[in-house]
Amino acid sequence: MNHEKFMKEAIQEAEKAYHENEIPVGAVVVCENKIIARGYNQVQKLNDCTAHAEMIALTAAFVYLGAKYLPRCTLYVTLEPCVMCAGALHWAQIETLVFAASDLKKGYDRFPEILHPKTQVIKGIMAQNAESLLINFFKDKR
Q1: What is the tens place of the pLDDT at every residue in 23-38?
Q2: Which residue, 78, 75, 51, is CA-closest to 137?
Q3: CB < 8 Å & 24+ apart, contacts of 85-89
Q4: Integer CA distances (angstroms), 5 to 2, 51, 92, 128, 134, in order
Q5: How far apart are CA 101 and CA 126, in angstroms?
Q6: Which sequence positions are flagged as catalytic?
Q7: β-strands 34-40, 26-31: how paired?
Q8: Do residues 98 and 75 lie in contact, with contact meaning Cβ atoms separated by under 8 Å?
Q9: Would the pTM of this model clear 0.90, i.e. be above it?
């Protein structure tokens, strides 16, 4: 798998969020080296605190595959998933989680047992790009 290629796609999703005044987090689900689902944060747009990029991408992947589990899929996301999203990844039985930037305040890594025991985790792919988007977003808010 070309992790940078797919993370670039997730960053493009995060840029959509940024331009819609949402916290810039984007995600893509890849199955058999093909993007099958995309998502970006839409909390403000949908007035839904659960409308995180990961949740939207997972739902689209379930619909695409007609399945409730994703054991052969990889989720690429620009920010470490929160506990809610990590729980959803557990239930989805996602094979691999690849994320760019760590989230020291709200990331799941404080409770790593939340993920499914078979889920592989790869951290830090294009972290600087994802962090720059987040830093610029919050700088613009101040």
Answers
A1: 999 999 999 999 999 9
A2: 78
A3: 85/52, 85/54, 85/55, 86/111, 86/114, 86/115, 87/114, 88/54, 88/55, 88/58, 89/54, 89/58, 89/115, 89/116, 89/119
A4: 5, 25, 23, 15, 20
A5: 8
A6: 54
A7: antiparallel
A8: yes
A9: yes
